[in-house]
Design goal:
- The protein is mainly beta.
- The chain contains five helices and 24 strands.
C-alpha cells in the first residue's frame, strides 16, 4: 500500500513539474474553416507522381528550391548550407557554402545557424544567383566563382524588426525588384515545427530594391508566409501561408495595387513553394497533406486548444513530430484565379513525399524537399 502511495506521489510530482515548466510557444486558439475537401473531382487520387526517378541519392540532401540559366544549368540549395549546379548532363558541381564548411553541416538542424540554409534561389537579370538564406539573409552569388555578396542581413531586417526565417523568393523580370518572405520574426528554420504548432501571425512579405538597397514591408501579420510566384504579367503575386493552409493574391499593379485577397482556403494540405509552370498555370508543392479520415488531422485537432499545444511543446521532442507526417506526395495545379485544374499524387510515397517546390525546365519537372536525401524528377507532364 505504501509503495502505491509513493508511486502516485511521484507521478503527481512529475505532472506538477511538467505543468510548471515554461512552454516555448505562446499559441492562440485558431479554428480552420472546415474539414478538408474530399479527394474527388480534380483532387481525385492518381499516380502521376510515381512516373519519375531519383537523382543524386545520398549527394543532395533537401534540394528545396530551383532556378535555371540559359545554358540549361539548374541551381539548388541543400540542408547542409551548400549551393549546387546541376548540368544538362546531370553532372553535379558545388558552387559555394552559404556559411561555414563544417563536417557536421547537414547532420543536425543545430548546426544550421553556422552552416546556413539556402531556401529561395533565383537568377537575376545580370546572371547572378539571388539566395534567401534562412539565417544569413539575402545574398548575390556568382554562379561561376561562388563569390558571395551580402545584400540584406537578417540582423538588419525591416522597420526595426530583424528577420528570423527567410524563405520564399521571386524576382521581377521587369524591374529587378526582389520579393521575399520572412516566415517568422520569432522562430528560425530549425524550429519550424514550433512555428507550425504555435500558429502565430508573425510573418511578412517584403521587397528589396538592389539599385537603392531599400527594403519595404508589403504585408505583415501573415501565417508562416512561404513560397511566392509572380503572375506572367507581374500584375500580382501568389503567396502561400503554410501553417493555415491558405494562398493569398497580392496585387502589385492596377486599381487593387497594395491589397490582398484569399484565392484558396481550407486546403487539402499545407502549401510550400508556388511556381509558374511552362504552360501558364501555377504549381504548388504540398509539404504535408491534410485528408479527411475517421478523425480530424492532427493539426486541425489541436488548433483550437492553446493549453494542449503548450503541453505538447514542453514534452515532445521536435524530431518526434515526423512520425505523424504521411509519406504522400501531392502537387496542385492552379489556374490564374486560383482554381484547381489538376493534381499529381504519389499515394504511397514511392518516388517522393513532402514536396517543397515544383520547377519545370526543358521538359523536366524537378520536385524539391526540405530534408529528403535525393532529387526526384519527372520527364514530361503527361496525365
Amino acid at each position: 500500500m505504501l509503495g502505491k502511495r509513493w508511486i502516485l506521489a511521484a507521478l503527481l510530482a512529475v505532472a506538477v513539474g511538467v505543468y510548471l515548466l515554461p512552454s516555448p510557444i505562446d499559441p492562440k486558439p485558431h479554428v480552420l474553416k472546415g474539414p478538408p475537401p474530399a479527394l474527388e473531382g480534380p483532387l481525385a487520387v492518381n499516380t502521376r507522381l510515381q512516373k519519375g526517378r531519383r537523382l543524386f541519392t545520398g549527394k543532395l540532401h533537401g534540394p528545396e528550391s530551383f532556378t535555371a540559366d540559359e545554358e540549361g544549368n539548374v541551381y539548388t540549395g541543400t540542408v547542409d548550407g551548400k549551393l549546387w549546379r546541376i548540368g544538362p548532363d546531370d553532372s553535379l558541381t558545388l558552387v559555394t557554402h552559404m556559411g561555414q564548411d563544417l563536417p557536421e553541416c547537414g547532420s543536425s538542424t543545430d548546426y544550421e545557424p553556422l552552416c546556413g540554409r539556402p531556401h529561395g534561389v533565383r537568377l537575376d537579370r545580370h546572371g547572378q544567383l539571388i539566395v534567401a538564406d534562412s539565417y544569413f539573409g539575402l545574398h548575390s552569388v556568382d554562379p561561376e566563382t561562388g563569390e558571395k555578396t551580402l545584400l540584406l542581413a537578417n540582423s538588419q531586417g525591416a522597420d526595426g524588426v530583424p528577420f528570423a526565417f527567410l524563405n520564399g523568393l521571386e524576382i521581377s523580370s521587369q524591374t529587378g525588384i526582389v520579393y521575399f518572405t520572412d516566415s517568422s520574426s520569432r522562430w528560425g528554420r530549425r524550429h519550424v515545427k514550433l512555428e507550425v504548432i504555435e500558429l502565430n501571425s508573425l510573418g511578412r512579405l517584403l521587397s528589396f530594391d538592389p539599385q537603392t538597397g531599400s527594403v519595404t514591408v508589403l504585408l505583415d501579420a501573415l501565417y508562416m508566409p512561404n513560397g511566392i510566384a509572380l503572375s506572367p504579367d507581374e500584375h500580382f503575386l501568389l503567396l502561400a501561408e503554410t501553417s493555415i493552409g491558405r494562398i493569398l493574391r497580392f496585387w502589385l499593379k492596377g486599381p487593387k495595387a497594395g491589397t490582398k485577397e484569399i484565392v484558396m482556403d481550407n486546403m487539402i494540405g499545407y502549401p510550400d513553394n508556388i511556381r509558374l509552370s511552362d504552360h501558364g498555370t501555377f504549381l504548388v508543392g504540398i509539404t504535408t497533406t491534410r485528408f479527411r479520415k475517421a478523425t480530424p488531422p492532427f493539426l486541425d485537432l489541436i488548433a483550437p486548444y492553446p493549453s494542449i499545444k503548450r503541453f505538447l511543446a514542453k514534452v515532445i521532442p521536435l524530431s518526434w513530430y515526423g512520425v505523424l507526417l504521411p509519406h504522400y506526395a501531392l502537387v496542385l495545379e492552379l489556374g490564374s484565379d486560383g482554381e484547381i485544374v489538376g493534381t499529381l499524387h504519389d499515394p504511397e510515397g514511392r518516388l517522393t513525399w513532402a514536396i517543397s517546390d515544383v520547377f519545370q525546365h526543358r521538359g523536366r519537372t524537378y520536385l524539391g524537399s526540405t530534408d529528403l536525401p535525393f532529387l526526384p524528377v519527372l520527364q514530361g507532364w503527361d496525365s
